[in-house]
Amino acid sequence: MLSSLTLTIPENIYIKDPQSSKLGRRILEFSIILIDKIGIEGFTFKKLALEIQSNESSIYRYFENKHMLMLYLVSWYWGWLEYKLVFSTNNLTDKKEVLCRAISAITENPKKDESFGFIDEVALHQIIIHEYSKIFQTKDVDEENQNGYFIIYRRLIDRLSQLILDYNSDFKFPKMLANTILQGALKHNFLNQHFPHLTDNNQQNCEHIKIYFQTLTFKLLD
């Protein structure tokens, strides 16, 4: 599995793959910094061009608009979670430990991964917490799904749901549970930061979120 896992983004999301050039990698790096700072609503290619000291037109050589750039970043994040899930469960044979490690990989707060130097995974995680639903909840979501824009997210859910079935093949709702874990962890991170009285997690490292979803999962499956 590890030998075939790459962070390859669907080609129709971008005009030119930003990972293929120095300028493109700077676009990704500073997009994350800027969106984390001001949010997607306030983000523009003009502001990004000032940050990277380049022309606004140069950014349009990579992305049609900021929605497509966000689709790229969100897809990259799902791919990175998939990478973490596969890496953390590789060579394990105990099915409960595999599922426990997988849940931990996708619910824990990230640390900077030096394998991808131009991406700040910590800042990107914050962007996903606050912005990812805006990518799904659009009028064009069905067309975008048909175009394969969400293929990495779907693959991540398929991987996690398969691990759920490996642990309990009789469980009838593996994809519903997989989505609950993945999206629920993001939601509780949001609540922890902005509505702490609505969540039981009061720790900065969000350890309770991981424990909650591990507990919930095995209560349902055992």
Provide a descriptive summary of the structure in words.
With 222 residues, this protein is mainly α. It has helices at residues 22-42, 45-52, 56-60, 66-89, 95-107, 121-136, 141-146, 151-167, 174-194, 207-221. It has one domain (2-8, 71-221). Residues 1-6 have low confidence and may be disordered. It is built from ten helices and no strands. Helix content is 66%, strand content 0%. α1 (22-42) crosses α2.
Q: What is the global morphology?
A: globular
Q: Give the total of beta strands.
A: 0
Number of helices: 10
Distance between the termini: 27 Å
Which sequence of SSEs, written as H and E, runs from N to C? HHHHHHHHHH
Provide a compact summary of the structure.
Helices cover 66% and strands 0% of the residues. With 222 residues, it is mainly α. The chain has one domain.
Topology record:
Layout (H helix, E strand, L loop, with lengths): L21 H21 L2 H8 L3 H5 L5 H24 L5 H13 L13 H16 L4 H6 L4 H17 L6 H21 L12 H15 L1
Core attributes:
single chain; about 220 residues; mainly alpha; 10 helices; about 65% helix; about 0% strand; disordered N terminus
